Amino acid sequence: MARARSSTTRTAAPPAWRRRLMLAVKISAFLAVLGLGALVTAVFIARSQLPSFESLKSSPNGQMIRVHAADGSVLVSLGPSYGEWLPYDRIPAVMRDATIAVEDRRFRSHLGVDPIGIARSVMIRMERGRWVQGGSTVTQQLARNIFLNNQKKFGRKFREWILALALERKFDKDQILELYLNKVYYGGGAYGIDAASRKFFGHGADRLSLAEAAVIAGLVKAPSNYSPTADADAAKGRAGVVLQQMVRNGFVTSAQAASADPGDVKLAPPARQNSVRYFTDWALPQLDLLIDETVKPLEVWTTLDPAMQREADAAIRANVPKGAQGALVAIDRDGAVRAMVGGTDYVSSIYNRATQAQRQPGSAFKLFVYLAALEAGRTPEDKEIDEPVTIDGWSPRNDSRRNSGEVTLRTAFAYSLNTIAAKLGQAVGFQTVADMARRFGITTPVNTHPSMVLGTSDVRLIDMTHAFASVGNKGVDVAPFGITRVTADNETIYTHEVDRSRVLVAPTVAAQMTDLLQTAVNTGTGRAAQIGRPVAGKTGTTTSSKDGWFLGFSSGLTTGIWMGRDDARPIAGLHGGTAPARAFAQFMKAAVASRPIEQFDTQVTLPEAQLEPDAESYYGAPDNMSFVDDDGNPLPMDAPRAPAGDQDYYPDRPAGPLPPNAGIQQPLQQPQRPRDDLAPPDTGGERLDQDWLDRVTGQGQGAGRRDQGRDQGRDAGRDPARAQPPRTPPERPNQ
C-alpha cells in the first residue's frame, strides 16, 4: 500500500542573494523617503523666508560699481541700466514665447527643476567629456540672479534647486516669468527686457517685434558673445536659432519665422566708449568668483596703468594694417595687467581680441618647442643640420625654401628655421611640447600633430603673453590678474595675493630661453622690436600672412601683440617682424622709460658669424700684424687669399699671395655693431634672404668667398678631420 503523501508542503527559504537584495531595496527606499522628506522640509523653510512679490519687484537689479586704476583715478563707474517695469500683460507675447522656447520649453509643466533637462545635460557631459549645456530652468536662473552668484560649485547648485522649488510653491508661473523678464541680465549693463530694448533698439520693450524679441531672448545664454554691439552677426545668428525653437515648440509658424528676418533689425547707435572698457569687461566678471557681495556698492581697485593704456591704444592704431584689427596685453613681473587693447575701436566692436579671440601663433609657438628641448638637456650652442626633413608624411620647409646646413640652435631660433623646430619637436616628443605649452598657461586645446611645432593650434593672446612673462620671471609662473582690492562700505572684502610658488622650469632653462629670445631681437626676425635696452622676444607669422605676432619682455614688463583680420583673410606684407614688432617698440619705449634698465642673466650672444670682426678688419690695409684663428693662434703668412678677379666682391682685398708683414689681427672683444655684409636685409619680417642667411651660417652657395682661405688654414692647422675642400667661388650676390 502506497504511503500517503503529507497534506502539507514545506516552503523553501529564499536564497541569500535575494535576501540581501530585498534588504538593499528596503534601505534605499528608506533613504529615498528620508531624503524626500528632508527636501520637502528644506523647500518649505525656504518658501517661508522668500520675500513677497512686491519686495522682489522693488529690489535692485544689480550693484553700483566704481572701478579705479592703479594710480587711484576712476576708470569708469558702472551700474545697472534700469528700464520700465513691465507687468506680465504688457510684455509682448512674442517676448514671452521666445524666452520659453529657447531657455525652458517645459516651463509650464515642471515644478521648478526639470529632471529631463538635467538628465540630457548629464548625458551630453558623458558623451563629450565636458559640460556643454546646463539643465537650468527659468525659475532656477531667476533664483540664481536674485539670491546667488555664478560660482560653479555643487553646493551653490543645490541651493539653487531648493530656491527654485520654493519659488514655484510661492508664486505662479506668470509671476515667475514677469520677475525673470524684468530682472535678467542682457549685457551692456542692461537688466530686464525694457532696458535691453532701449539700449539695442532705441524703444521700449512693449513694442518689440518678433525679430527683436528673438535677438533679446538669444542674449541670455552669453550676453558678451551675442551682444548686438559686440558682434551683430553673432547676435543675428543666435536670433535665428531662437526662431527655429519657436517653430519647433509651436509658438509661431514657419511662415511667421521666415518673415521675421533678424538681419533687417535696426540697432540703436551705441554710446561712445574707449579702450579701457576692454580691460573692465575682462576684469569685472571675475568678481563673481572673488566675492559673495551682490548688493552693496563696490569700489574695485585694478592694475591698469592709464598712461600705459594710452600708449598701447596709440601703438595699435598707428601700426595696425588698414582693414585689420590689433590687440595688446602688457603684464608686469607680478602678473598685474597694466594695459589691454582688444581692438582698434571699442565703439565699433567690443569683442576683446586680447582675451577671447583664438588664432594660430605661428613661429611664436616655438617658445614651447625650444623650452622642451632645453629642459631635455640641449643648449643654445648645440648644432643641428638644416636640411629637408619628413615626419609622418609632413615635410616642413623654411620660408626661403632653402636650407643652410649645420647651424646652432641659437641661429635656428633667431632666424626661425622651421626644419630645426620640427627636428627638435620630434626628438623631445610632440606630446612633451604640448604639455610644456599647457604648463605655461595655454588654456586652448593643443594638438600633437608634427606641424604643431609651427603654431597650428589656436591660442589666446593673453595666454601667450602669460607664457612669455613666466620665462622672463626666471621660470616662475606669472598668472595675469586685473583686480587688486575690493571694498564695500569702506571695508576691504578682497585683496589679491601674488603666488610666486609655482616653478614651471628650472632657472637655468629660463635663462637659456631668454638668451635665445635676445638673439631673435638683436639679429633675427625681431629686429624691429629693439628699444635701446635689453629686449627678449619672438615673432610669429601664420600661413599667407593671416596673423602677425610679437611677444617680448624688457625691464620687468612683458607685452604681447597680435594683428590680423577677424575673417582670417590674408594681409599683404603682414609678418610678426613688421607691424607687430614696430607696435611693440613704440609701446615699450614709452612704457618702460621711467624704469631702470635691467640686464638679463645671460648677455646677448650673436649667431656664429655675427661674432666675427667687421669686414674692414679682415680686409683693410696692412698693419704689420698677423692673421690669427679663433683661438688666437697665428696662421701661415702664405695662407690663400682671394683668387684673382674676385676684387669686385671684396674690393679692399687684393688678390695673390700675401706680401711680407701683411695681415690682420682678430679683435679680442665682440664688435659693437654687426658686419655690414652680415646685417640682415630689410625684409621686415621672418622671410629672410637666403643668400644672406647662408653667409651668416657659413653654409650653402651664398656663403661668400671671404672665408675660403681663413677656413682652410684654420681647419687644416687645428684638426685635419675638420678640414674642408675649397669652395667654388660663387657669383657676386645682389647688394
Automatic annotation (TrEMBL):
Q: Which GO terms describe its molecular function?
A: penicillin binding; peptidoglycan glycosyltransferase activity; serine-type D-Ala-D-Ala carboxypeptidase activity
Catalyses which reaction(s)? [GlcNAc-(1->4)-Mur2Ac(oyl-L-Ala-gamma-D-Glu-L-Lys-D-Ala-D-Ala)](n)-di-trans,octa-cis-undecaprenyl diphosphate + beta-D-GlcNAc-(1->4)-Mur2Ac(oyl-L-Ala-gamma-D-Glu-L-Lys-D-Ala-D-Ala)-di-trans,octa-cis-undecaprenyl diphosphate = [GlcNAc-(1->4)-Mur2Ac(oyl-L-Ala-gamma-D-Glu-L-Lys-D-Ala-D-Ala)](n+1)-di-trans,octa-cis-undecaprenyl diphosphate + di-trans,octa-cis-undecaprenyl diphosphate + H(+); Preferential cleavage: (Ac)2-L-Lys-D-Ala-|-D-Ala. Also transpeptidation of peptidyl-alanyl moieties that are N-acyl substituents of D-alanine
Q: Which SUPFAM superfamilies match?
A: beta-lactamase/transpeptidase-like (SSF56601), Lysozyme-like (SSF53955)
| Gene Ontology CC entries for this record | outer membrane-bounded periplasmic space
- Biased region (Pro residues) positions are 726-735
Which intervals carry biased composition (Basic and acidic residues)?
A: 673-694, 704-721
Pathway given in the UniProt record: Cell wall biogenesis; peptidoglycan biosynthesis
Alphabetical keyword list: Carboxypeptidase, Cell shape, Cell wall biogenesis/degradation, Glycosyltransferase, Hydrolase, Membrane, Multifunctional enzyme, Peptidoglycan synthesis, Protease, Transferase, Transmembrane, Transmembrane helix
Which InterPro entries does UniProt cross-reference here?
A: Beta-lactam/transpept-like, Glyco_trans_51, Glycosyltr_51/Transpeptidase, Lysozyme-like_dom_sf, PBP_transglycosylase, PCN-bd_Tpept
Q: Which BP terms in the Gene Ontology apply to this protein? A: cell wall organization; peptidoglycan biosynthetic process; proteolysis; regulation of cell shape
Penicillin-binding protein transpeptidase domain location is 327-553
For this protein, the parts annotated as crossing the membrane are 21-46
Ranges for the region named Disordered are 616-735
A Pfam family reported for this protein in Swiss-Prot or TrEMBL: Transgly
Please indicate if the UniProt record lists Repressor as a keyword. no
Protein's UniProt keywords contain Hydrolase = yes
Domain Glycosyl transferase family, residue spans: 77-246
Instruction: Say which family it is in.
Output: In the N-terminal section; belongs to the glycosyltransferase 51 family.
- Name of the featured protein: Penicillin-binding protein
